[in-house]
Specification:
CATH class: Mainly Beta
CATH architecture: Beta Barrel
Number of strands: 15
Number of domains: 1
Shape: globular
Strand order of the largest sheet: 1-2-3-7-8-9-10-11-12-13-14-15
Helix content: 10-25%
Number of helices: 5
Order of helices and strands: HHEEEHHEEEEEEEEEHEEE
Distance between the termini: 43 Å
CATH superfamily: monomeric porin ompg
Amino acid sequence: MIMNINYSKGCLLILLIIFLFIHTGRDAFCDNLIRYQDMGSGPVSVINQTPMQLLFLQPAPDRAETLPQGAWILRLNNVTTNTLLSESSGLYSGHVDMEMIRNAISVQYGLHPRFELNITLPFMYSYSGYMDHTIKHVESFFGNTRKVREKQDIDRYEYHIEKNGKTFIGGNKRCSGVGDLSFGIKGKIWKETDYLPCLSTRLLFKAPTGDEDRSLGSGKPDLSLGILLQKEINSFKAYLNADVIFPGDAFDSEDVSVNRFYIALLALEYRLDSKWSCIVQGRYTSRPFEHTGLKMLETRIFDVLIGVNYQVKGGYFIQAGGVEDCWTSDDASADVTFFLNLGKVFF
């Protein structure tokens, strides 16, 4: 338990040290904050952290606007998630009781005024966690403690999805390692005008670099196509992402079918001043699994993100906040998620 807490604190400390190291060299770069405001803001690039959903490609929330040619953004994401799901139905059963720390390094590069390249590599560590007590107390305070939470063995690690008693996702051992690498291209169709939003399209590909035996990836490549819209009105900016994902036949040998699924996101950002902005994101995620009878695999996920964005001179930015599942997602999604993103815009 102590080692797990230290790991979480260590990840945050490493990210902060990297950020501060970069920040110490700020005088070597342009100090015109206006050049970086739009590039460092926008939707928070946090995907849904449900362990089974992380096996597949999930396009990160993004702006429709592309980077200027030659400009690039380095982003370090740190996300901590608590997940508790348990059910059985017919041939299938699933038990997920874990916390996960997911760190991701992503780079976006302006290849052309209308084209942008991006690449993301995640690192994941799952363990028993330390938020179980707090979450249970909070749920009890509001009088809506989940039944599965009342029966939970605190600080226990469990992650296995089974068919006919055979595990095809997860295992009994905690694991850590590299996840699936994703990369793609975004192309701007038209720029924003007084009446029209900026419109772009994107194509993403996921390479199966994560170890499928340890559930760090699906073991198959995925592909996605999407459109992005962006419109600014006074101090507000609105963003819309819509993507369709085509997963590979990840569990064909277990006779578990997966199908294309969809992700839609609507985000609203309000700029408080030249440095601070706040953002709210609502996201809908359909599921790739079918014919299992398990809510944790098939029920559509709705979640809401609330965060703040802070930008300083030289193109440095910090994003922090949390994500909560809502409506019918209680028995299908990660319970609670906290994130801290650090980034730097380069010209």
